[in-house]
Amino acid sequence: MLPPMIDIGVNLTDKSFERDLDAVLGRATEAGVTRLVLTGTSLASSEAAQTLCRESPGRLYHTVGIHPHHASDYSNGTGSQLLALAKDPACVAIGETGLDFFRNFSTPEQQIRAFERQLELACDTRLPLFLHERDAHERQIAMLRDCRDHFSRAVAHCFTGTREELYAYLDLDLHIGITGWICDERRGAHLQPLLRDIPPDRLMLETDAPYLLPRDIRPRPKSGRNEPCHLPHIARRVAQETGEDEARLRQRLLSNSLEFFAIQP
């Protein structure tokens, strides 16, 4: 029997899961994905994730944070609200936070301010960081470097960058989160050889569901929605690319995720 898996990044509060959430969780369990970390991207989604976790203790965990897209919503009271949410026993990280200069739904200045405050929160709480970045690597690395001695751990969520960007994160002792992007022969081909450059104890896997359905899933869901039950498919692809035994890889991923998020085995 293969070791169970933890999906370290799933947007379970997304409206696409409203009608069949129990079935989604059931399919995840059947696939061997026994624990999920729900991503908080705003105060509302962080609160919703907390509520779901209280209904499934020991199975669901969550992060609390303000995504860079929502940085303009970060007010003087947001920090205290995030801190209150972070005190919940099921909260295992601060984020999704970081910088996204690609779409700029919030201005770069607003993003930087919100990211600074969440870096401070991670330093104060000693919770790990769950990081987002797009087209802002140099600035984000500089901000992380400035406070690296003060936060505990961080994961570059949904890493899709270059070798140089990977090594910049690894130089800061960050973990790397890989999604179904690795299964895309068009956009993910450059990532496949980089898997071998990630130290064994720094790799974790996530679906980022309902987004990033692995392109090579067969049969392909008509809805196009990704689910946590597809995480083993991503693990198999990683094992194929690295030549590692799948069971050994899954055991390593489990150990990495449990340790990173301080989840009891």
Q: How would you characterize this protein structure?
A:
With 265 residues, the chain is an alpha/beta fold. It has one domain: Alpha-Beta Barrel (TIM Barrel). It is 37% helix and 16% strand. It is built from eight helices and eight strands, in the order βαβαβαβαβαβαββαα. It has helices at residues 21-30, 43-55, 78-86, 108-125, 137-146, 163-171, 231-242, 246-261; strands at 5-10, 33-38, 60-64, 91-100, 129-134, 154-156, 175-178, 203-205. Strands 1-2-3-4-5-6-7-8 form an eight-stranded parallel β-sheet. Strand 2 (33-38), helix 2 and strand 3 form a beta-alpha-beta unit. Helix 2 packs parallel to helix 3 (78-86) and helix 3 packs parallel to helix 4.
Radius of gyration (Å): 17 Å
Amount of beta strand? 15-25%
The major beta sheet can be summarized as: 8 strands, parallel
| Cα end-to-end separation | 17 Å
Structure class: alpha/beta
Shape: globular
Task: List the uncertain runs.
Answer: none
Q: What string gives the helices and strands in order?
A: EHEHEHEHEHEHEEHH
What is the H level of CATH, i.e. the homologous superfamily? Metal-dependent hydrolases
What's the helical proportion of residues? 25-40%
**CATH topology category name:** TIM Barrel
How would you state the average pLDDT, rounded? Answer: 97
Number of E-type strands: 8
Strand order of the largest sheet: 1-2-3-4-5-6-7-8
Number of self-contained structural domains? 1
Keywords: Hydrolase, Metal-binding, Nuclease
Pfam family, one: TatD_DNase
Protein name: TatD family hydrolase
InterPro entries: DNase_TatD-rel_CS, Metal_Hydrolase, TatD-like, TatD-type_Hydrolase
